[in-house]
Amino acid sequence: MAKEKTAIVATGQTHHRSSRLDVNGIELIHEAVTRCLEDGELTIDDIDAVVIGNMDHFEGINYVDTWSIDGSGAFMKPIIKVTTGGTTGSTVGHCGYHLVASGMFDKVLAIGWEKNSESDTTAAITTAFDPIWDRLVFAGAISGLAVEAMAYMVKYGATEKDAARVAVRDRKHATNNPYAQLRKEVSIEDVMNSPMLSDPIKLLDVCPRTDGACAVVFASEQYAEKICDRPAWIHGISAKHPYNYLGDYDWEDRLPSMQMASKELYAKAGIKEPLKEIDVMELYLPYSCAGLSWIEALGLCGPGQAPKLLWDGVTDMGGELPINPSGGVIATNCIGATALLRISEAAVQVMGRGGKRQVPDVNTALASGFGGCFWSDVTLLKSTKPK
Amino acid sequence: MAQKQQDQELLQYESRIKVPYTWSVGEVGSRFLMELKENRKIWATRCPSCDMVFVPPKKTCTYCFSDIHEWVEVKDEGVLQTFTVVRYETPLIPGKPPYIIGIIMLDGADTGLVHLIAGVPHDKVKVGMRVKAVFEEKRKGHILDINHFKPI
What we know:
The complex is a heterodimer of chains A (387) and B (152).
Chain A: E1 6-13, H1 25-39, E2 49-53, H2 56-59, H3 64-67, H4 69-72, E3 79-82, H5 88-101, E4 107-115, H6 121-126, H7 142-156, H8 160-174, H9 188-193, E5 196-198, E6 201-202, E7 211-220, H10 221-227, E8 232-240, H11 256-269, H12 274-277, E9 280-282, H13 290-297, H14 306-311, H15 328-331, H16 335-351, E10 364-371, E11 375-382
Helix pairs in contact in A: 5-16
Chain B: E1 4-5, E2 8-9, H1 26-39, E3 42-46, E4 53-54, E5 70-74, E6 77-86, E7 99-106, E8 113-117, E9 130-135, E10 146-151
Antiparallel strand pairs in B: 1-2, 3-4, 3-5, 6-7, 6-9, 7-8, 9-10
């Protein structure tokens, strides 16, 4: 149980690109941290502790916590590094929350970053699979996601066109986000005609690889409203990291870890009808078909009903529940930052600081993280203080 | 293409890390692989508490954290739960694209085995089809002692 009511009071992110040769990793982190401190009108002296995360193999640097202090500002401060694969960013966020909610620190800086341009992304991701049982057959992220999409489409009758609708939505939303990497709209035809990578996933169905960083400040009740006039209060988190081998996954179902995590989160926050009660979602959807099956896992509709929700525009800007106003992961994927960007963007929506990507009147926002072997993290933020 | 910041050319420092690893398979996994090698048989472990049958075998149950000591033989054939036709090339995988990766629920098992599917045209592969292990003639105690699974 949380001892301290905790809110996000400031956020910052880099301008994300496929490669940012103008900065090294430390300087990239610095860019996000500086913008975050500016957002909260804070200085580094206000920060009590730092959490940082990325995936070691993308940059080949194994002591990021100490290496990056010129970027993070953690000189002579408590700092820990966490790495949980794709969920790294949400784990970083959850750690930041834990450190404040536990009463240990009042203002914690949480940082996620990645410089994916610096190595072979597929090779690095392959190190996340078990070396004896999975690695020789599965390589990289795409084939692992493709088998999930195949199973969902066969069981529930969804089509590649239905999936393409998700990519079209996220890429359209990205045009409103000045920080996004891919800011050009694509059509259903563009997605359908893009090269097949691993059936049924095509090039425009999947996320890019990105250089980028994100930083967020978590603050206790004593400081939250002094720093931010409309803080994004954390009303609950849940993390479910169930499997280690790909073969353990339940291919008959839809992301069971997300079903378990969201059910637990909704119970904590008293949410009964997520589609009606939540105003916006920032979801870690690394490829288009996830935007169908995983929103079913989140309880937005029944099994096999997600395509209709998509085509009816329910999840578009202006729809009942806009998903990924930022453009999401299909537009920007700096992996260690990706899930923290979801939390950060959800907070931005609650704070009302979204500019062109702002959804009107957001009181409740949900952010998700995805990683490893079909793991899920969720975070619920509100404009009102938890009881 | 070189990037520039105003007139400043931006450099990248090229390097490479090549590290050899020897991963321990462990007693449980070694027994499984030696059964492939010596007897062309697929053995699994069964959790004494929740009855889950694991292929590949596990020493500890994922679901209830019980120690597992019981071995059961499973069939070398089963159902293709899902698959993908991989069309991108990577030096990390021995095969040349396009090739098929599948997840196979062997008869008698409760978890899927990740493996290659071959001996079938790519447009004829279907979720739910039955497949059977094709063993290598020369086996060395390795997951690829099963060369692939073929439809039956």
